[in-house]
Amino acid sequence: MLFNKCNSFQVLVKVHACGVNPVETYMRSGNYSRIPALPYTPGSDVAGVIESIGERVTAFKRGDRVFTSATLSGGYADYAVAEADRVFPLSDKLNFSQGAAIAIPYFTAYRALFIKGHAKAGESVLIHGASGGVGIAACQIARAYGLQVLGTAGTEEGMNIVLRNGAHQAFNHREANYLDKIKEYTKMQGINIIIEMLSNVNLAADLHLLSHAGRVMVVGSRGPIEINPRDAMNKESSIIGVTLFLETEEERRECARAVLDGIEAGWLNPVVGPEYPLQEVAKAHKDIIHSSGARGKMVLLP
């Protein structure tokens, strides 16, 4: 369906790039709590150029470069309609592929760290899967806000990406003794916050890595896991689920301010990973779930 007309508070964006997120594969498969009505086009974080605006939109004009945090019509397309309050100016410092790597990863990372995780400068944070889109965002944000940043990745290339994007130390989560190395690095003091992308694999071990009153922020999971609640009781630790779909308008504005300030300051620099033409979206979905190791944000190019 081609949208050529916007309602009062909407904009029409000519899509130049669209981010691919694991959650879109879960929704497509039907194995997710939030199942959209059909017909459905995936895609939330697009970057492109304003094609037209609704009559009550004042913040943008035709020709503006923008990125979005959500769309009404779906981003896996040539054009996308979005509410104006989900659209943000794209700095000339960044290209369109980088623009498509901003909203979902950086809003999620900021919300997990600060709005839900109450992170403070000087605390330690361990980011599991730190070489992916959300992981890189979390590394950059945490470093900029004064945290001690540790990250894990599954390949040497991934570990180098993590170190280049703010981590003080990186660990290979494919090594059998990587948890011991993390404990040794922290001198057995524990981690204040863990950003967890694959909680169905790591959550039980995370509870042993935490400091007293530490927090595991569950950003991603692909299934169930058995844990011992006593491991949380012993340290009075918390397991907190995070999903961007439940953000409030106030939280979205806070995330946007932090992100736009980070772009202006220069520390927010999205890393683009594999890029696919739109017609290869099925391959992109397969690769984002089954790749040997993430290396930046996966992007579609219409």
From TrEMBL:
Its EC number is 1.6.5.5. SMART domains: PKS_ER. InterPro entries: ADH-like_C, ADH-like_N, ER, GroES-like_sf, NAD(P)-bd_dom_sf, Quin_OxRdtase/zeta-crystal_CS, Zinc-ADH_QOR/CCCR. This is Quinone oxidoreductase. Pfam families: ADH_N, ADH_zinc_N. Residues 1-300 form the Enoyl reductase (ER) domain. Belongs to the zinc-containing alcohol dehydrogenase family. Quinone oxidoreductase subfamily. Its main location: cytoplasm. One of its GO terms (molecular function) is quinone reductase (NADPH) activity. PROSITE patterns: QOR_ZETA_CRYSTAL (PS01162). It is found in: Cytoplasm. It catalyses: 2 a quinone + NADPH + H(+) = 2 a 1,4-benzosemiquinone + NADP(+). One of its GO terms (cellular component) is cytosol. It is an enzyme of class 1 (oxidoreductase). Homotetramer. The keyword Acetylation applies. Keywords: Acetylation, Cytoplasm, NADP, Oxidoreductase, RNA-binding. The lineage of its organism: Eukaryota, Metazoa, Chordata, Craniata, Vertebrata. The keyword RNA-binding applies. PANTHER family: QUINONE OXIDOREDUCTASE.
